[in-house]
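Review form for a predicted model. The reviewer records the input and the model, then writes brief findings.
Reviewer: anonymous (R2)
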Amino acid sequence: MADVIKVSDRLPELNGCPVRSGAQRFGDVCCIEEPQRSWSYTELDREVEALVQNLVKAGVKPGHRLIYDGVELVRELTFCFACIRIGATFVPINPRFPLRYKQQLVESVQPNWKVTDELVSACPHTIGSEPAGVVTGIFTSGSSGMPKLAMHTLENHFYSALGSQSVLPLYPGCRWALTLPLFHIAGVALVFRCLWFGATIVIPEDRAISPEWLTQCLISHVSLVATQLVRWKETCNPNFLVNHLKRLSGLLLGGSMIPSPVLQWLVDVRIPAWISYGLTEMSSQVMTGPVNPDGVLQILLPYRDIKVSEHCEICVRGKTLFAGYYENGRISRPGRDKASDDGWFTTGDLGILIEGNLQVLGRRNNQFISGGENVLPEQVESVMCSVFNLKECYVVARDDAEFGHRGVCFLFQDDLSEDARLHFRARLKADLPSYAIPVALYDLTDAYGKNCLPGGLKISRKALVELLYSGQAKPVC
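Model under review:
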């Protein structure tokens, strides 16, 4: 093992397929582990190469787009890296999306090929092909509307992995639980990092994990969303949970803004947790840092630049900045979209940058005006989660004849006591100005049941607004 770790200390090279590079550098080191079987780097390399030969015979060519709609993770990974070797673009989508919604996404991709867990099918009447170098297309979260297809080069993924490695290093012997889907940029970034640095990707059975499973499978690193951690806190013995989490080398939290009580608990019990700010367009992480009660990010990762405009909008650039959005048969370059001539990409996120430390405030297009005052839903949500100890909640604007807009809040009804429901506005007066306090509460359970999760990990505020105006939202009080 010591010899293998010594090999991994040399930085990888950007010279083609990461699986082939891994086979050359790490050989028989375990690359992927499932409950019933495992693959070394060499074995996975052979499977990818065999698939390449079959796909080329079937007619897959450089520049083709291949959309993947399935749940078999190892098959999905194999297709991803076969596409890279061929020069095709791999586009995974959420297999659990409603059929009509998936059809919309497929039509927007205009793929040459569609792959499921059983079939590979050619798609007729496809427009155009990708320029050389584009290897993946990942849909944005769609939390504010219809997802966009962000196109990435191998160089984007390489420098994303290299920058993350400088803060949370991986090497042979590290075991990262693949808890995030490949249709999300965080899941894709995790895979590339493991492959370039010789770690093992551990796939849990049925995608389900528990604190005990982390220990039983000798997991060293895991990525979680805040909701998952909150549920563990509620259902597990506190000492039991802390003991399991302290065995980790790294717990990476992301997906959305994390409630302050969760951050404070992680600090108090000394879990080796990291928080991060990232986006699909920057190939995952931009800034990161050890967990702290205020959620301040202290470390800018290498190969990225960040600034905040005079209007408090976060702008980013660097080697991880994506190639552009795919739309109507072409890629719109960031320079023609939301990036300036000097390479800055405006993220749509609001934040404060003081002496290199970043505080993310929320999304610009989530902001609304109530009685002439600006309301940032994410700040209201943070206060509500803290005051009422909520798992999650979402504030959206409702039209109001007097104030223009007033906020309403979606939350899980069972998370709020009867007394809190009746007096929630009074309980919030000490922490929020009156114009920011929601005027009504609605049950989030119904929202989850009505497919308000187009991005897979983040709920769609646009879908919540539509649910509200359709009259289908269930009032809590």
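Findings: Confidence is low (pLDDT under 50) at residues 1-9.
Further findings: DSSP finds 16 helices and 26 strands in the chain.
Recommendation: see findings above.
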